[in-house]
Amino acid sequence: METVLSVGPWVAVAACVGWILSQLGERSEDRRRRVGEVATQMTEKKFPAPLVEIFSEYAIGDRSGAIKALVDFVKLMRDPAQREQMHKQFLQDSLDVGLEDPETRQKIRAAVDKKTAEIERDEMAVYVKVSDELKPVGTK
User: Fold this and answer.
1) Vertex 74, ends 18 and 33: CA angle to 5°?
2) Cα(50)–Cα(41) distance, rounded to whole angstroms?
3) Alpha-carbon torsion, ordered 118, 122, 125, 130, to 10 deg
4) What is the C-alpha to C-alpha distance for residues 13 and 25, in angstroms, rounded to an integer?
């Protein structure tokens, strides 16, 4: 079940890639130009290279290469070790890019502070529950 939940988001990304490729304009030249721009932006934002490759292959007009890259990406996501390594690298790269901008850095800090407060609240709730269960019978 854990594998399905871990692979699910990346398969959804792959499905979105397919949808984006089919929706990016009427003329193939214009569509490929736009996909090339998206691939460049993804590279700048440090998206995983196998994912960017799908867009790059399509941008140069190599549909079979794009399909092969998509299949390779899905296979990569099915391997738990490679998937976890890609997740970690993507998170680190995203933080590196995000921390360059002061506004994004502030948003990241706020999100981390919020999540930390939630974790601390949940841990305190568990502590209170456990301590209540350990009280001797007949005490409040």
Assistant:
1) 35
2) 14
3) -160
4) 20
Q: What is the mean pLDDT of each run of 10 residues along the chain (140 residues)?
A: 61 76 66 86 86 88 87 89 88 81 86 89 70 58
Helix ranges restricted to H, the chain: 2-23, 28-44, 49-59, 63-78, 80-98, 102-133
Compute CA distances 83 → 24, 120, 131, whole Å.
28, 29, 39
Domain boundaries, the chain: 2-95, 101-140
- Nearest C-alpha neighbor of 46 from the set 93, 91, 83, 87: 93
Question: Structure pTM?
Answer: 0.54
Q: Dihedral of CA 28/29/34/39: which sign? A: positive
